[in-house]
Design a protein that fits this description.
Layout (H helix, E strand, L loop, with lengths): L12 H23 L4 E2 L1 H27 L5 H18 L6 E2 L2 H83 L2 H34 L24 E2 L37 E4 L1 E3 L2 E3 L2 E3 L16 E2 L33 E2 L19 E2 L5 E3 L5 E3 L1 E3 L26 E2 L4 E9 L2 E9 L5 E7 L2 E2 L7 E10 L7 E9 L5 E12 L7 E10 L6 E9 L2 E12 L20 E2 L2 E3 L8 E3 L15 E3 L5 E6 L3 E8 L2 E8 L6 E10 L2 E10 L14 E8 L3 E6 L4 E2 L10 E5 L5 E5 L3 E5 L5 E6 L9 E2 L3 E3 L2 E3 L5 E3 L44 H9 L3 E4 L11 E4 L17 E3 L5 E4 L1 H41 L1
Parallel strand pairs: 12-25, 13-26
Antiparallel strand pairs: 1-2, 3-9, 4-7, 4-8, 5-6, 10-11, 11-12, 14-17, 15-16, 16-24, 17-23, 18-23, 19-22, 19-24, 20-21, 20-23, 27-28, 28-29, 29-30, 30-31, 31-32, 32-33, 33-34, 34-35, 36-37, 37-38, 39-40, 40-41, 42-43, 43-44, 45-46, 47-48
Helix pairs in contact: 2-3, 2-4, 3-4, 4-5, 6-7
Amino acid sequence: MAESNATQVILTDDGLKIIKAQSTADTAASGVTDLNDPNLMSVIEKQTQAAQYAGLTSQYNVILARAKDSSISTTALTTAYTNLNTFMTAILTDTTKASDVNRDTYKSLTDAYNTALSNVQTALSNSYNTDMDNMQSSVSVASQAASSAVIVASQATTTGNNASQVASQAIVVANQAQSAGNNATSVANKASQAASSAILAGSTATVSANKASADYQTLSAGVKDGSVVHITTETVIDKGVIGTAEIANGAITNAQIGNEAVNSAKIADLAVGTAQIGNATITSAKIANLAVGTAQIANAAITDAKVGDISANHLKVGTIDFNKITGKNINASNITTGTMSTDRLNVNKLSALSANLGDVTTGSLKGVDIVANSFSTPNGSFTTDANGNVVASNLTIRGVTNLVYNAALLGGVGGSKSSIPGWNLFTKGYYSNFKLHDGVPSIGFNSSSGANVWSMFAQSKLYPLNGLTGQPYSASVWFIEDGSEAALKYNFTLAFFDANGNRLARGYADNVWNGNPTAQGWAYKTINNIISPSTAVYVAIQYWAYNGTGHALFSSPMLTQTAQSTGYQPDTGNVVSAGEIDGSVINGSTINGTTFHGGDSISDSNNTSNFYPFTIEPTGKASTTLFNSMGALRTEMSGGGLRTMYRAINSSGSQYEAYDGNFSGDMISLNSGFTNGKDMSFSQSVSGSQLTGQVLISPLNGLTLHGDTQQITFNGTSADVTPKGIIITPYGNINPNGTQNIWYVGNGPTMKTASFGIDGSGANNIQFNRSLDIGNFNINTYHTITSSDNRPIHFNRANGSSVDIFAATVNYTSLVKSSLLSVKKDVKKADTAYWAQLVNSIDLATYQYKTDDNTSHLRLSSIVDDVNVTKQWQLPDVFISRDENGKLSGVDDSVLLNATLATVQEQQKQIDQLNGHNMELEARLNKLEAKLNG
């Protein structure tokens, strides 16, 4: 394409903007170079690092606080963080420009910090596991205590059975006494004495049996935890029916029946075999309607008489008033048959009865130890067997509970920043694991309260009363003096509080004592029977010091809902320990054990690991497991984390579909993949080469997607029957979902900032409804392209050269064409005559465009004939412009303009020649005129 010499044209502001855009592009190219320089940290990288480093600092502060609470050394972590912080602060001070950076130093400091952080986190995990082991030890001790409770219950059962046997033996003795009375009639005075002794023994046995029956009824109703049941001379079995029970090898000795009457008892047809009654005296006795042999003794009184050698078979039917007879040394083996009501029997020891007591259906046993092979309530709601197994429909085991939260001071941290979970140590209390009482740490005071000032240095966590006002409360604590001023007073307080945690003005009681300059041993301090006020909501204990300087410690605090203080026990609540407890309801505050299973082992052929529906392991891990026709599902909760797992039962080749979900404090991870072989034990992890997709959600790194199917899908509103929205791919691209055609950014459908067509047909455009700034280039909504920095705007090809611009009417202030010799080659002087000839060969035409209307003006130019094969309009090819495909596009005005200039130059030559010729003619004309005039 031919060019003319440079023609000076002055650009408008729009022309300058083109130049400015070129400068902006150069600046951008320089910025890209900076991004690729490994020794520079770019502005973009700085801003990203600043956000991430803020998250790192937040994580560091949290880990540092937790480590200090657990007495874990943080020296290495603090040093590593300080070094990294110094390095990063210098770089991130100015985030608006790139800075030099030593990548090796940056990596070494970051690695040092991550190593130190990992070490502290590992130490925190070990500390937690140690706490869990200590807790497990406490569980074992509590389990032994509960096992002892079950043994006591079993013993109570045995004692009840013995009591029943004793009562039956008492009946046998009474029957024997009755028989002895009949035989005594035949032997006169000896017979009377024998009958009297028998009645005495029988009456005594009756009273004791009545008490034993009452004790047994009380025992059947339920013996309170820890009760010891004693059967003494005061034990009564009342209204009990003693059947065929036998008391073997039992003796009733020294039994007394005094002033007792057997009113309705009848002793008939009984024989006293070889029993001997000797040296007995019947005084003031009346024997009426009795026959001795064939003799009748009516209304006769035998006083001071001695009757000897009278055969017992001479005593026949009749009535003897046993109130008048005292008998001794009756041989129970000679009392054979008969019946005596148990309310007539009183014995000192049921062990003296040898008969089987049978079933005792009424009465109660009180104050006795019960030892039995088995025990059950009448309706079977509570049973124990010989092996110690307890079966109960509703089992409640109550004991004295320590209401002091963390009375064992577990998790305490000593030093200048002492702390104990559940306790407020204020500013002067401290934790000590050096002064122990029976292995329990203590809370110390080693300071000054100030003159005449009460200073509280410890308070336990407020315990809710749950409406139990008007109840007695007691407290105790162990105190040790380490040397205090005599004027100093120590105060142990049991206090009640309102709903806002304020101590009630009259809702407390205390125990106050003076300090001692000499160290002392442990002393036991108590507060008893303090009634909770009606306005009380909480209860707690407090330690105070007053008016002086001292050093002392408090340990093993105990707060109970009792009228008297009790010995210390940890606040573990009520503990049950047994081989097996079966029942529908267990009421209690704590269940401790090595392993807890919910339900029976899952009955499924795929349950090869013998999983239960729910399991709590000694490590603290709780898990649930389910098997169905499609796969196995399991959830595990342990150490602040939660893991969910799915394992397919059926395979695709050798691979089984699998999913893992992990939830922790700083990350949620959802993994999809497969296991190699059927993994019904959940032993394979969906990670590494077995991972096909992953979604990570982190407060530090946000949302991360990885995998072929990982995407964010928006399905539209409830009004959309089919999905409609967008899909964000793993690469962050936006694709349409369903029938969605556009994706917009804005303040709503009617206030779109920008709208992007995303339909497959390409029918929807990209539209910006606000001014668009691209670097220093601005396109507004008023048909204006602006150079923001007032520099030229350039339109270039990808290779850097200028690009063609197609437009209709162009309005400009000036037009400048680049014609620098430095960018040209093959420069030759043009033949103006040739170019003038070409210009003169052009056919000019007037016309209008087909799109013009009747208001358009008449147009004049050359014509590019792109219609006729044989051109109808003459235009040399050098003036025709073609596009990149060689297709005719129009007239090259740049060539035409300069050809016109060549024509002007050629015409100027001709004008000059004509002017010279004209001057020559004019001179000749002047000479001719002179001659003519001459």
